[in-house]
Specification:
Helix content of chain A: over 70%
Oligomer: heterotrimer
Chains: A mainly alpha (300), B mainly alpha (281), C alpha/beta (252)
CATH superfamily of the domain at 67-232 and 262-276 in chain B: MetI-like
Structural class of chain B: mainly alpha
Number of helices of chain A: 12
CATH superfamily of the domain at 74-261 and 280-299 in chain A: MetI-like
Largest sheet of chain B: none
Distance between the termini of chain A: 53 Å
Largest sheet of chain A: 2 strands, antiparallel
Radius of gyration of chain A: 25 Å
Structural class of chain A: mainly alpha
Order of helices and strands of chain B: HHHHHHHHHHHHH
Helix content of chain B: over 70%
Shape of chain B: globular
Order of helices and strands of chain A: HHHEEHHHHHHHHH
Number of strands of chain B: 0
Strand content of chain A: under 5%
Number of helices of chain B: 13
Strand content of chain B: under 5%
Strand order of the largest sheet of chain A: 1-2
Shape of chain A: flat
CATH class of the domain at 74-261 and 280-299 in chain A: Mainly Alpha
CATH topology of the domain at 74-261 and 280-299 in chain A: MetI-like fold
CATH topology of the domain at 67-232 and 262-276 in chain B: MetI-like fold
Radius of gyration of chain B: 24 Å
Distance between the termini of chain B: 52 Å
């Protein structure tokens, strides 16, 4: 009885109730933020929807001075840069995933590689951009001179190269986790039949992890699409339809970064925000699909 | 041994070396960047550099005090906003695993995590900058807080999910109120995982530029007024790196070195913390 | 004349649509050890967890009927108050891994934000550890983490933590099932000592343990209270054929 009096008070009960309510509040707040992000983008895109409609997506000219807004160059610019980056990154990210997930799961060498990969993910995007501007751009320029393309240096290829470096860690660490999930009795079954390590990888591990590795690619693609700074710094900021991987271009994110604070007309601003809306929807959908695949994969 | 088997074993070995080679190629860009930043930035580093603001084009010297102070302040405020809310939301999600609200809330967190940082910049511009009529450090902090939240929430949730339920029962059976059990037992037991999530989130936003472009905006002068535009390291690097002036490039390299050291130190400390502070069961 | 400190009347417990405790009425006399036994899945643990309102923590759980502590329905009292008066020891020892042995014992006060003088605190810790028969083993290592102790010591630490709050009733959910035989016998001895100050309700799936330690025994089967009597009577002369089958080992 004595103890009860000492430690119990109705104030505590009220605090407890308030605390539980606050937990619920935080969970609701996340939903409110997510919905509000979407609605904000939609509302401010309305002027663009209304006066441009679907012309917006097929128009090849983006000329704010004469109030013409066709987003196709940016849509294409984004798609080409991201897919090219993905293509470049695949061999490396898969190699890291296989090495850490199968060949060398423990030991200092794998620790080292793991840490290096984490550091690659940690370097800020703006530093990648700066480095690419000073180091990669001249390299690409000399390549362009060799193949006879216009020697801008900046452009889709440069942006894809730096993007590729930046997204390798994501697909790699995800792939590593997934390869580790392959049940060891499956592998042992194959080994006991006399398969070599390469054959086990090719015929047991890779088929088993196919869907998961695909999801990893999706998630890296999501990152590549939304990446802004590094790309903005080296893509050349040219709002015309790209005609080769060497041409300077713009991605959705880089146009927004460059022009948002200069957009003085409602339609101009709204056209930029619609780019943001498209980017938001695409990356969110890609992310959610990727996560769903991985969830299903790890539950199997 | 027959020929075929030899061939198969050789293929396997060659493939292993090939994979190893490809895997370790990632080291090249990382070291190239670190080397380059060190080479160009190290000569700039000095007391003068971190205690002075940039000089106008054409003058020698000047530093990045405004950006350094701004970055620290913006990130600090962002963390103050995001960490408590993020941890508590993570607690909710791990405590109510199967509730409907948790399902939708988790989806919302995924949406936030998938949102490109530049889009968050746009949104905060409309939420805060436009209504208040001015770019401000606080709007930048809020944008960064929104980027931090999903990381903090997820790491808290994942950490707490692994704690045995007996821990919570022990607290409740002692007659502790729910909030005491969470704040004094559950969170302290998961602190290393939660803290590493927080540190990673801080490291992540410390290098973010895009959400600040339309919020904190940048400022060539030193200020600590969070209601005014403020410079930050990544913003300074972006603006000066893309300028045509060599002196400004030098400043940007010095700033890059400091930012890189900051971010890498955070990452390394996180590792040490998770290794040292693990609570034993 | 024994007075019932705790009694349930037509008590039912559910998980969703699963009826796990069916219409149980029983009186638990003060300063007795009451053992609740039965095959696994018979509802004995659920019944125990209803006594200090731990059952309701599981989503979908609900109860019907009355559970009285000193003739007052505990479902009309705040659960925190109930749990302060009715302590619990779990199947697996669960000391707080972030706290020292000392802080574990005083946790009910300390984590509740209740400030007490150091001398008073020291005496609570010492007395509780003495009552839990752990003092001699840990008095020199009070500031080490509780998780460094052996399983049996950890369980006694959990008992000390519970009795530090001076509850009236102490519930024990198979307190020795995770322990070795030596630790088990020391805990069983301890129960006899604790009986002087507390009323104990012990869930066990081990008949011998029930026979060894308890004054009264309740036999649960498929959620029903089949038989409840003095322990000697129950084991020598069971009235229900199901009880007889159980104690003669015809099913388990």
């Amino acid at each position: 009885m004595d103890v009860v009096k000492k430690v119990f008070s109705y104030r505590k009960i009220r605090t407890e109730t308030a605390f539980k309510r606050f937990l619920v509040f935080t969970a609701i707040a996340m939903m409110v933020i997510a919905i509000a992000i979407f609605l904000t983008l939609v509302i401010h895109s309305i002027p663009s929807f209304q006066s441009l409609g679907t012309r917006y997506f097929f128009g090849t000219t983006w000329d704010p001075v004469s109030n013409v807004y066709g987003a196709l160059p940016f849509l294409l610019g984004t798609l080409i840069t991201s897919f090219l980056a993905l293509l470049i990154s695949i061999p490396f990210s898969y190699a890291i995933a296989i090495y850490l997930g199968e060949y060398q799961t423990k030991g200092w060498l794998s620790e080292l590689l793991k840490n290096i990969v984490e550091l690659v993910a940690a370097v800020p995007s703006v530093i990648y951009g700066f480095w690419a501007l000073v180091v990669l751009v001249p390299m690409v320029r000399s390549l362009e001179v060799k193949v006879g393309a216009a020697p801008y240096g900046v452009g889709i290829l440069t942006a894809s190269l730096v993007l590729a470096i930046m997204i390798i860690p994501y697909a790699a660490s995800l792939g590593r986790e997934l390869i580790r999930l392959v049940p060891s009795d499956l592998k042992e079954g194959a080994y006991s039949l006399g398969a070599t390590r390469f054959e086990v990888l090719r015929h047991v591990i890779l088929p088993q992890t196919k869907s998961g590795l695909f999801a990893g690619l999706l998630l890296s693609l999501g990152r590549a699409l939304g990446e802004t700074m590094a790309v903005t710094m080296v893509i050349g900021n040219t709002s015309i339809l790209p005609d080769s991987i060497f041409s300077p271009a713009n991605t959705m994110a880089s146009v927004i970064a460059n022009e948002f604070t200069e957009a003085d007309r409602t339609l101009y601003l709204s056209a930029l925000i619609e780019l943001g809306l498209v980017l938001f929807i695409v990356t969110v959908v890609i992310n959610i699909i990727g996560k769903l695949i991985i969830k299903r994969f790890s539950n199997e | 041994m027959n020929k075929r088997l030899q061939l198969r074993l050789a293929t396997s070995k060659v493939f292993e070396y090939f994979i190893m080679l490809l895997a370790f190629l990632i080291t090249i860009p990382l070291f190239a960047i670190i080397y380059y930043v060190l080479k160009t930035g190290l000569s700039k580093l000095s007391w003068h550099f971190i205690t002075n603001i940039p000089k106008p084009v054409g003058e020698i010297g000047g530093g990045i005090a405004n950006a350094l102070a701004g970055s620290l302040l913006i990130v600090l405020v962002a963390a103050v906003i995001a960490v408590p809310i993020g941890i508590l939301c993570g607690v909710y999600l791990s405590e109510n695993r199967n509730s409907k609200l948790a399902y939708w809330s988790r989806l919302a967190v995924d949406v936030m995590q998938g949102t490109p940082s530049i889009v968050i910049g746009i949104v905060i511009y409309f939420w805060i900058v436009k209504p208040s009529g001015s770019f401000s450090a606080i709007s930048g902090s809020i944008a960064l807080a929104i980027m931090m939240l999903p990381i903090v929430i997820r790491s808290t949730e994942e950490t707490l999910k692994l704690l045995p339920s007996s821990l919570k029962e022990a607290g409740l059976a002692l007659g502790l109120p729910y909030h005491k059990v969470i704040l004094r037992v559950i969170i302290p037991c998961g602190i290393s995982g939660i803290l590493s999530g927080v540190m990673l989130a801080v490291a992540r936003i410390a290098g973010e530029t895009a959400p600040l472009l339309f919020t904190a905006f940048g400022n060539p002068y030193l200020t600590t007024n969070v209601l005014k535009p403020m410079q930050s390291l990544p913003l300074l690097i972006f603006n000066y790196a893309t300028s045509p002036y060599d002196e400004w490039h030098d400043l940007a390299w010095g700033a890059s070195l400091i930012l890189l050291i900051w971010v890498l130190l955070l990452n390394i400390t996180t590792k040490l913390i998770t290794r040292k502070w693990k609570v034993q069961f | 004349m024994e007075s019932a400190i705790l009694s349930s009347k037509n008590f039912n417990a559910y998980f969703g649509n699963n009826h796990v405790v069916k219409n149980v009425s029983m009186d638990i006399p003060k300063n007795n050890i009451v053992a609740v036994m039965g095959p696994s899945g018979c509802g004995k643990t659920t019944y125990l967890r209803c006594i200090n309102r731990m059952h309701e923590l599981i989503p979908g759980a609900k109860v019907e009927g009355k559970m009285l502590l000193h003739d007052k329905d505990i479902y009309s009292i705040n659960p925190i108050l109930v749990r302060l008066k009715i302590g619990m020891v779990f199947q697996r020892p669960n000391p707080f891994p972030n706290l020292s042995i000392y802080d574990n014992v005083i946790a009910g006060y300390k984590l509740n934000g209740f400030k007490i003088k150091k001398s008073e605190r020291d005496s609570i810790v010492e007395n509780s550890l003495i009552k839990a028969a752990l003092w001699n083993e840990v008095k020199d290592t009070l500031h080490k983490k509780g998780t460094f102790l052996s399983g049996g010591q950890q369980q006694r630490l959990c008992i000390a933590r519970a009795i530090a709050m001076e509850p009236e009733v102490l519930l024990m959910d198979e307190p020795t099932s995770a322990l070795d035989p030596i630790s088990t016998s020391s805990i069983e001895e301890l129960m006899h000592e604790l009986k002087k100050n507390f009323t104990l309700v012990i869930v066990t799936h081990n008949m011998q343990q029930a026979a060894r330690v308890s004054d009264k025994t309740a036999f649960f089967f498929l959620g029903e209270l089949v038989e409840y009597d003095d322990t000697r009577e129950m084991f020598i002369n069971p009235k229900d054929s199901r009880t007889q089958n159980y104690i003669t080992g015809r099913f388990s």
